[in-house]
Amino acid sequence: MIKYQHILVVMDPVAENQPALHRAVSVAALQEQADITLFLPIYDFSYEMTSMLSSTERDEMREGVIQSQEEWLKTLLTPYEDSKIRFAIKVVWHSRPFEAIIQQVQDGQHDLVVKSTHKHALIQSFIFTPTDWHLLRKSPCPVLLVKERDWPMGGNVLAAVNCCSDDKGQEALNNKVIAESAEVARLLSASLHLVNAYPITPTNMALELPDFDPHVYNAAVKKHHERALYEYAVRFDLESKALHLEEGLAEEVIPRCADATNASLVILGSVGRTGLSAALLGNTAEHVIDKLSCDVLVLRPDV
To answer: Coil, strand, or helix at residue 250?
Structure first.
């Protein structure tokens, strides 16, 4: 986490507390030099529909709203006046927040996006894709989704890996996740844990193949994952007690393990599906977020 020196904080215009800003300051404090940009995309359709006003008057009205929000953001920086962190404020008028955020990431060359997240209702998640999900799929840099829980010194950091794939890209992503988790754990004097979920034996195989023994199959799959997880443990100098291997879906296993280890931060990778596959299947990261009571740092594969 030492590399995050240009941090973009997505502000919540309706929240009294801004946990994302607090967390970004905590991350920046770990750097030798860091800057934080408070970013707020705003839009009110009613301003565009004011037919009685001229375009100039509507522009002036929008500018007035933007200036008002900028003044509000300045008040949030009062507690950090003595900080060595460099702060900037940017408010933009944009009807699609996630597009505005991603554009700012590219224009400002930010290396981390920090945003608070809220639990999504099932029907909302299905019909309206939240900004969080768009960021997970399309952000060119890591995304830290924050909940209102601190990172205590000496706590636990949980790295979620996928050992079931022989894909070189997945292996590289696993290494990236663990390396990043190890760095965060070191900075926080925390303990690093690894979790991996292995698949449940397919029921249809037992029904369609008379000679198929699900117990033998399950033992072989578990052994394969144990071996892969152990290799990562050796590579990153982790003790066996820090390894967690459970049968089941990753979106169920990871939150359960986070609770069991009392993790203050979960770090995982996301391949960022888009299109129809994202609408139908989603990503493991997306399914995990709402089930966790702690922060989530989502990393993308290296290009």
So the answer is: helix
First to last CA, the chain: 19
Look up the domain containing 231 and give its range: 149-303
Contact 144, 299 (CB under 8 A): no
Give the mean pLDDT of 13-42.
91
Q: Token digits for 127?
A: 């019909």
pTM, two decimal places: 0.87
pLDDT by residue (tens digit) across 121-135? 555 544 445 788 888
pLDDT tens-digit readout, 68-86: 999 999 999 999 988 889 9
Number of domains the chain contains: 2
Give the chain's length. Answer: 303
Looking at the structure, tell me whether residues 57 and 199 fall in a common domain. no
What's the CA gap between 201 and 211, in Å, rounded? Answer: 15
What are the distances in angstroms from CA 175 to CA 60, 162, 209?
Answer: 51, 10, 37
Query: How far apart (Å, rounded) are the C-alpha atoms in residues 189 and 296?
Result: 18
- Is 197 in a helix, a strand, or coil? strand
Do 100 and 87 belong together in one domain?
A: yes
pLDDT given at position 187: 87
Sheet holding 265-269, edge to edge: 86-93, 35-42, 6-10, 112-116, 143-146, 295-299, 265-269, 156-160, 191-198, 243-247
Do the beta carbons of residue 131 and residue 101 sit within 8 Å?
yes
Rounded Cα distance, 43 and 55, in Å? 16
16 and 108 fall within a common domain: yes
Which residues in 89-104 are b (16+ Cβ under 10 Å) and which e? Answer: bbbbbbeebbebbbeb
Over pLDDT 70: what percentage of the chain? 84
